[in-house]
Amino acid sequence: MKLQPNKPNKPNKQEKPLLGITMGDPAGIGPEVITKAMASRTLRTICRPLVIGSMPVLERTIKSLKLTLKAVPVKDHEAMPLSQGTVAVLDPLEAPLGRFSPGVAAAETGAASVSFIKKAVTLAQLGCIDGIVTAPINKEAINLAGCHYPGHTELLADLTQAKESGMMIVGGPLRIMFVTTHVAIKDLPGLLTQDKIEKGIRLAQLALTQLYGIRKPKIGVAALNPHAGEHGLFGDEEARVILPAARAAQAQGILASDPLPADTLFGKAAKGQYDGVVAMYHDQGLIPLKLVAFGTCVNLTVGLPIIRTSVDHGTAFDIVGKGIADPGSLLEAVKLAAKIANGRKSARSS
Ligand SMILES: NC(=O)c1ccc[n+]([C@@H]2O[C@H](COP(=O)([O-])OP(=O)(O)OC[C@H]3O[C@@H](n4cnc5c(N)ncnc54)[C@H](O)[C@@H]3O)[C@@H](O)[C@H]2O)c1
Ligand SMILES: N[C@H](C(=O)O)[C@H](O)COP(=O)(O)O
Hints:
Blueprint: E1 18-22, H1 30-39, H2 41-46, E2 48-52, H3 55-64, E3 70-73, E4 86-90, H4 107-126, E5 131-134, H5 139-144, H6 152-159, E6 166-171, E7 174-178, H7 188-191, H8 194-211, E8 218-222, H9 237-251, E9 255-260, H10 262-270, E10 276-279, H11 282-293, E11 298-302, E12 308-310, H12 328-349
Parallel strand pairs: 1-2, 1-5, 2-4, 3-4, 5-12, 7-10, 8-9, 8-10
Antiparallel strand pairs: 6-7, 6-11, 11-12
This protein binds nicotinamide-adenine-dinucleotide (NAD) and ligand 2.
Ligand 2 binds near residues 137, 153, 282, 299 and 312.
């Protein structure tokens, strides 16, 4: 059997989606969470998994965790072993990854993690896989390797030439779309523009309607400053850019709120008053998310031409090699990618 391009016009509804799972930074906990997830029965009931990563690293991880799994190499467009107990691995590196220090950011492992992502994107674009699920990269390491991106989100947007895309993270009762991602707090006021906030609201609307099937989602738009700026007393971003963006979205029929004090908005969303929230910056949305659901949240890039989900955690260098990394978020990311892929297959065949 070959890793053939899937036929978009004749989808096989019975077949589980084929998902490429990128290893992330080999010096982080990516290999461990992938290996643990591969050993669980759940994963194979959801999808046909293909690990895109370093073969020797995966073999070492299986050994150190004392798991009865066998890593089987897969070359481009080649046979794919799918039985329980085997892990199909596509290693795209020209030479096997050499020795490296686990738990340390380095150019070599950073470069490897970028190669895994690029390979997965190519396979998804060719239709050989139905979507990609990414294990964590280390942003410092990819930058040491000369890949000057703040994260997967922006790299994937460029690789796929997405017109409009952005980061959404879902977990527990919260679905949060981010206007900015990895930026310094001191640069935030200059980076928050009406255009970017409108885009965040549009992407939240897209995800909530198309992926979650909510016909008229209620979207809470977070303010930036304490008490939503208190009429200019604590900042003018609300009046200058956030309110105009919210009003522009409202004029298009989107049920977006005016800017709301962020300290109470997330609690309201958690109780179901909002279907999703647009957060102005990383920690504004990620602190509530990770407080209520760390380990089960899923990061989703909305607006890409390919399916991409990811874990809610990073490379966790402090626990590498200890055998205690939790694969929960990876399993949730696989479930969501498979659900989206199945939905698209059904839509194509109906
Ligand atoms: N999806 C991604 O690629 C992604 C996501 C988040 C962070 N990162 C990157 O990871 C690196 C480290 O970031 P960080 O230290 O802020 O966050 P982190 O998530 O790596 O670690 C934060 C804390 O959570 C713990 N932790 C994380 N994942 C865990 C798991 N699966 N099981 C048990 N404990 C876990 C760690 O041990 C650590 O104490 C950075 O380079 C960051 O940019 C990547
Ligand atoms: N902000 C995310 C988190 O903290 O979980 C993560 O760093 C996302 O990064 P990517 O753009 O690499 O998905």
